Amino acid sequence: MITHIGIRDFAIIAEIDMDLSHGLTVVTGETGAGKSILIEAVSLALGSRADTSMIRAGRSKSVIQIAAELPESADADAPSDCVLTREISATGKSLAKINGEIVTLAQLSESAARLADIHGQYDRHSLFKTENHLALIDAYHSRATEPAKKAVAAAWRAYAEAKRALSALLQSEASSARRHDFMRFELDEITKADLKPGEDAALRESLAVLQNGELIYERTAAAAEALCDGDRSAVDGLGTAMRALQDISLYSKDLDEIARITADAYYALQDAASALRALRDRMDFSPETLNGVIARLDLVERLCGKYGGSVEKTLAYGETLRAALADLENIDARKAALTAQTQTRENELARACETLRALRKEAAAELETKINAELAELHFSKAVFAARFDDTGDIRQRLSENGADSVEFLIASNKGGPLLPLAKIASGGEMSRILLAFKSVIGDYDGIPTMIFDEIDSGISGITAGVVGRKLVKMAEKRQIICITHLPQIAACGAHHFAIRKSDDGESVRTFVEALDADERVLEIARLIGGARITETTLKSARELIEMSGADAGTGR
Hints:
Elements: E1 2-10, E2 13-19, E3 24-29, H1 35-45, E4 61-69, E5 81-89, E6 94-98, E7 101-103, H2 105-113, E8 116-119, H3 133-140, H4 142-193, H5 199-211, H6 213-229, H7 234-248, H8 253-282, H9 287-307, H10 311-329, H11 331-377, E9 384-389, E10 407-412, E11 420-421, H12 428-442, E12 450-453, H13 462-475, E13 480-484, H14 488-491, E14 496-504, E15 509-515, H15 518-530, H16 536-549
Parallel strand pairs: 3-13, 3-14, 8-12, 12-13
Antiparallel strand pairs: 1-2, 1-4, 4-5, 5-6, 6-7, 9-10, 10-11, 14-15
Helix pairs in contact: 3-4, 3-11, 4-10, 4-11, 5-9, 6-8, 7-8, 9-10, 11-12, 12-13, 15-16
């Protein structure tokens, strides 16, 4: 709620400070004293557009500040109070601050919208914004609508996920279709090559052997001659040595060890000789063999260069192509499955939205009944309120995570008259009483802690004024109400009373505000009853009004 209003050099206001409390606060004053100027200043602090013409004559700027206690938040670190500041410079510049930090006008307005609704000539009331109407209906029957809204939100997420998957598949189909032939060509090229892991290294070794065939044959023949084919071959000589040592190995450990080593060398040399003969005998130095190896290595290296840098990577790329082509060739089945899933989830979302709509319409019907009853009590018996849902077109065209509904609050001032949006009601007094009727019904649901009324008493008197006053008192039990009024029946209902005065010293006009005590309050209400001439009769009437309203004149409440 608002705890303090400070105004400096605004219009005819030089300096005003008002400390405010919970409950109903009334502000009265003579015509022209500056009641509407006070409301306009507050409206500026809450984010309305600035006008440099409102700067007090001879001053360079106006400053308006509002201090407020914020509603309790689930966030333990959230601030419990705030100060909204608006400065208007004669140069045309406007500065907005929240807790001393400069913010944009939009940020100030957004924060202020959660703090206070103001209605009058400088109306900022959230009720007249169509975008808020659906949220008010949901809040009014939140026990029923909240579970339905959560079901809609869950259905929306499932539907959106299926729709995204289908969209991604369709995009993939379009791009993959263009690559299909190319992927098939690449896979066929890799498949036909029949690559083997490690083949490139083996081919390079074969090529090196073939390219040096004569030298290799010459050296292998010489080695074979020395090892096993000559008259004095190494194998024969080592065999003679082995047999000689074996004959004497039993005489000492050293001889046995030497005989064993010699035998190992003999058999190893025999294996080497056999391998050398086999290599020599199978060597093929034909041009056809050399050309075949060169051609195969060229193919392998070309494919590796295109598809990964090695035979293994090329084969892996081939498997990737095979999987991608399988997916592409199976895309019709996947598309059909995703299309069916998307349709199913859209149907589920539509049903959830229809359930939510039924609950919203039920809440709206109850609102209509209660608000029309409130209007009748406020002597608007011929007025008709209605909450109109947009039922045109296919509901599926309006599906969202918040349902498929659009609603607007309408009112006809007279039965049979046209239903018009609330904001188009011409009379400020009518708008204020309509707002009061709404707030009497839905005031506990919008979460806004402060309401400011101006012109609520326009065009009413007598019994209606008394009804308005009692409704304000009732509403003030759960929130802060600030009401500018000229009617004694309403003023008498206030728990707190301020009077706006104007003084003229011949050189300048000055507006100031006084917090009235119990006696001053009786005098002010008597003035509202009888004008400037206060009599015992008007004083008695003032006291009676205060007593009838339930306010305590002895405490100023």
